[in-house]
């Protein structure tokens, strides 16, 4: 087999994936509600074609031949083969009918989740969720190799080589550290003024401000677009087509602004993967955790810095026509760093955010360790929120129905947010050794930050494993202490606590 034949097969698979990605984007941004069943059928058909190629004879032949003759492959071919081989070994035993059923189930579950959200009623999502869990457990029986637990199998899909053993240890360190910081704030902190945060800011005003900001942060709108959705996401269709989505609240401007800044981090990553990897599985993020590190670098590192808002607050003032004319910069900046327990993960402040992830992580572990029934999940969710954050959802929309992930059967994904959080802070401290980050954020040109991220993270796509990327960029393995150091720096300054 020639390398070109292998790359052509990968391109055909990638084009099917692009079609599926556009259909999924459309389903979440503009598809009529009644089109759900027909769309599920189309998506299932295309996914069946894709999956047949993925585990088909050509791929089998390529893996066998090039594993024995790696010298016949270019750098791109070698990187692609590594990923294809890993996927093939995991999935070649999975019956095609099961993958088609899985694809159809997740498409229908998304629709059921939307209906349940509208009614604030988990029972409308119950059957679809139970089916997603059943199918995932069936898939695990094919995927499992030497992982210690079924949940480790799922973690490994999103974050290669990650285990519950590692996460239990890391989460314990982070949880204890966050609680210590939070306790100091409660005991000694001077609370910032926040009464003006819910003043009305029109959607158009928010859009004017944050669209310019995400362009400043490196998102290229000539190769991207921004649309509205219930649950914000970003999707890279191809190198020239990367789409962001967002939601807006005119009496909570920070939700829309920070939401789009977050999604733009994903978008900039997708736009800056080396073009040589196009049409191969290397042209995507190294892992979910690394992808989240880029969105969280934007949202929780850059957008929490005083220097960023020193530059952007005058522009926000201009966009909102005097809404905050009576609010000093010091009060405005401090208000954005307030910390208080909340019910909704994507609205959580950067100090308590990781506790939302730990709740989901613990529940997912229980689901796949057979320690909880599906009908008991809303109660379990509410109890954990009360235990960790001291708040209890009043309905299922505020509770278990808030995230899209389980409708897509993305079990094992949530820890990626926490890992992304830790990676982001570690990258910031590495970047700081080479760049004066605060000086750049006060300037008219942020390109040095984006350039550093592209050189150290983006360009490699999935050609390096996450642990290698982080080690190469920062000079050490994952170290959760950087996250705790960063949170302490930001929050102690705002709450006027001297260490």
TrEMBL record:
Q: Which UniProt keywords apply?
A: Carboxypeptidase, Hydrolase, Metal-binding, Metalloprotease, Protease, Zinc
Cofactor(s) it depends on: Zn(2+)
Q: Which reaction does it catalyse?
A: Release of a C-terminal amino acid with broad specificity, except for -Pro
Active-site residues from the entry: 263 (proton donor/acceptor)
Q: Please indicate if the UniProt record lists Metal-binding as a keyword.
A: yes
Which PROSITE patterns does the protein's record reference? PEPTIDASE_M32
What's the EC number here?
Answer: 3.4.17.19
Q: How is the cofactor bound?
A: Binds 1 zinc ion per subunit.
Tell me the residue numbers annotated for binding Zn(2+).
262, 266, 292
Q: What does this protein do?
A: Broad specificity carboxypetidase that releases amino acids sequentially from the C-terminus, including neutral, aromatic, polar and basic residues.
In its UniProt entry, what is this protein called? Answer: Metal-dependent carboxypeptidase
Question: Which organism encodes this protein?
Answer: Tetragenococcus halophilus
């Amino acid at each position: 087999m020639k390398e070109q034949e292998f790359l052509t097969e990968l391109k055909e698979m990638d084009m099917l994936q692009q079609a599926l990605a556009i259909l999924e984007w459309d389903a979440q941004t503009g598809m009529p509600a009644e089109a759900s069943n027909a769309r599920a059928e189309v998506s299932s058909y295309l996914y069946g074609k894709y999956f047949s190629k993925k585990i088909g004879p050509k791929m089998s032949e390529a893996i066998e031949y090039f594993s024995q003759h790696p010298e016949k492959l270019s750098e791109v071919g070698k990187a692609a083969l590594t990923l294809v081989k890993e996927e093939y070994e995991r999935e070649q035993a999975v019956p095609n009918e099961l993958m088609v059923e899985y694809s159809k189930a997740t498409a229908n579950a998304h629709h059921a989740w939307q209906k349940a959200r509208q009614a604030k009623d988990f029972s409308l999502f119950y059957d679809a969720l139970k089916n997603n869990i059943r199918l995932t457990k069936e898939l695990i029986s094919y995927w499992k190799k030497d992982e210690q637990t079924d949940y480790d199998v799922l973690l490994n899909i999103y974050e290669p080589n990650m285990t519950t053993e590692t996460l239990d240890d890391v989460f314990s360190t982070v949880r204890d550290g966050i609680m210590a910081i939070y306790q100091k704030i409660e005991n000694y902190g001077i609370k910032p003024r926040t009464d003006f945060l819910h003043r009305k800011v029109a959607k158009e005003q928010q859009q004017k401000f944050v669209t310019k900001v995400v362009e400043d942060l490196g998102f290229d709108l000539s190769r991207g677009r921004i649309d509205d959705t219930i649950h914000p996401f970003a999707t890279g269709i191809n190198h020239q087509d990367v789409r962001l989505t967002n939601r807006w609240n005119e009496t909570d401007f920070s939700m829309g602004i920070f939401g789009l800044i977050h999604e733009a981090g994903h978008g900039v990553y997708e736009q800056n993967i080396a073009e040589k990897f196009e049409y191969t599985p290397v042209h995507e993020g190294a892992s979910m955790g690394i992808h989240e590190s880029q969105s969280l670098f934007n949202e929780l590192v850059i957008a929490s810095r005083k220097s960023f808002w020193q530059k952007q607050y005058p522009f926000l003032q201009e966009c909102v026509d005097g809404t905050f004319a009576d609010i000093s910069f010091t009060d405005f900046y401090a208000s954005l760093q307030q910390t208080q327990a909340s019910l909704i993960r994507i609205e959580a402040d950067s100090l308590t955010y990781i506790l939302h992830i730990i709740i989901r992580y613990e529940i997912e572990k229980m689901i796949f360790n057979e320690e909880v029934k599906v009908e008991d999940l809303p109660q379990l969710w509410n109890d954990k929120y009360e235990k960790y954050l001291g708040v209890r959802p009043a309905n299922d929309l505020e509770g278990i129905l808030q995230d899209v992930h389980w409708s897509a059967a993305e079990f094992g994904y949530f820890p990626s947010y926490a890992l992304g959080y830790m990676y982001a802070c570690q990258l910031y401290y590495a970047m700081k050794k080479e760049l004066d980050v605060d000086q750049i954020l006060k300037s008219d040109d942020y390109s040095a930050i984006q350039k550093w991220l592209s050189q150290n993270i983006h360009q490699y796509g999935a050609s390096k494993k996450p642990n290698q990327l982080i080690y190469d960029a920062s000079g050490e393995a994952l170290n959760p202490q950087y996250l705790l150091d960063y949170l302490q720096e930001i929050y102690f300054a705002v709450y006027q606590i001297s260490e």
